[in-house]
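Re: the multi-chain job from yesterday

Posting the exact lines I submitted so nobody has to dig through the queue logs.
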Amino acid sequence: MMRPAALAFAMAIATTVFVRGAEAQPALALPGRVELAGGVLWMGAQSLGSRDANLTTGTGSALRLFSSSSDLAGAPALEARVAIRVAGAIDLEATASRTKRDLRTRLSNDAENALGATVAETVDQYVVGAAVVWYPQSRRLNPRIRPFVIAGGNYLRQLHEAATLVESGETYDIGGGVKWFLATRTRKRMKAIGIRVDGRVVVHNKGIAFDGRRTISPAAAALFFARF
Amino acid sequence: MRRSIAGFLAIQLLVPANPALAYLKFGTSVGGRQVTLKWAQTPVRYFVSSRNAVPGVTVDDFQAAVGRAFAQWQSVPTSSIAYQFAGLTSALPGDDDGLSTLGFRNRPDLDRVLASTNFLIDAATGALLESDIFFNSTFAWSTAAAGEAGRFDLESIALHEIGHLSGLGHSALGETELREGGGRRVLGAEAVMFPIAYASGSIAGRTLKADDIAGISDLYPDGGFAASTGSVSGTVTKNGQPVFGAHIVAFDPVSGSMIASFSLNAQGQFSIDGLSPGPHVIRVEPLDDVEIDSFFDSSPTVDIDFTVMFFDRLVVVPRGGDRPGVAIAVTRK
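And the result, structure tokens for all chains:
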């Protein structure tokens, strides 16, 4: 535990650093107020847990007939984002993505020696949501490169193979990345174009969730953008 | 009929021409057509025989144990079946008196039969009129809450026989091993309607499983059963030829439950009803853990010469519908 004198000293240092930083790094305006972006999102594999197919013995204990473990395989998705600047360093985004993912179940340890197998079906996945993008200020960076932090919430809709069944849920993601401005023009309608890359941690709630728990998976995106 | 070890065929099972009928149900021929045996009216009124109590089980013990077993079947929310205790009777089970009676009978000649259910049927409609269950007092019985070593649990066996009384046949969801002295020992089962009982002392058979619940709900559907569940159907073939009597298990990787059926006609067609919507693993195995005559009469040829295997796709069961066309090709051992 920090003693009161030490705490006061630490707060003083922190305040000083913040004030000096604010003085040294005035806000850098982003070109344009509206951004359109589209590209590829890689959605990492999402573990759905394991479950045994059990028989009940005479003592009431479980006798495993075979084992299963399931996941949603990693897959590329198409992603589109529309952003509007709401403050000097903050954009609000509307987002949408679509992908097809394999729902896989690995089968093993069969009590009657059935060959192990991985069985799968294809899931059609749609995500729509909103996000906040914050651009930290720093003059030390190359002016063509703008790091950002992103956090958002999404509605998730998953259609099992041949649209036999629909499942819905939510995802929440947080991450960060950089935007690389390839060209900026102050007097044209299109103010800038560039490439955006980011990495995210995605929390899934409901949707295809075998054990009913929230699951976490990684995601990474590379998108072209244009600002107006 | 429930046997301590595998024995002879005593149950005439319906082999439906239409495989949309899942599970094994009792059937009879009425006017040249097969009809499923079931009660036309519920509650099914049953009597308890006041004769032939056995050591360790009074008539009151007996009535309480079978009452708990009836209550379990009746509590299935997706089934409309209901039962009513009508009183004690001096009649014995097996008497054709219009009363459905449960009680003990001493049958030392049936040295592998723990209990048996028989029926009186309306020959014009196929409706059940009477069904009696006898428990063989040749064996030692118990109604103790935790079971008793060396005694068979009456509640467990009653639960199985009441499934028959309601019209259900046997399930093959279990694994056995051969005993040195003949017969089979149950390693594990996942259906009360598995035809071989657990060893004496066990009370593991007191709880209905997913397969039992699907079966009784299929026979007496209620509570949105059809709308809230789905089915899979398809064929089992070997070298391009239909396989009769293959045991097909649908495993739900979400809940871990298993519900099973058989390929039930000359085209090798099967259907499994009462499945929860969502992805399922389909596993096929030969019917080699129990004597075949526990499931089918001797007329069809049941093929057990193939290896256990998994269907090569996850099968998604729709809500309130059928997922057809699951074509399973098995290979010879």
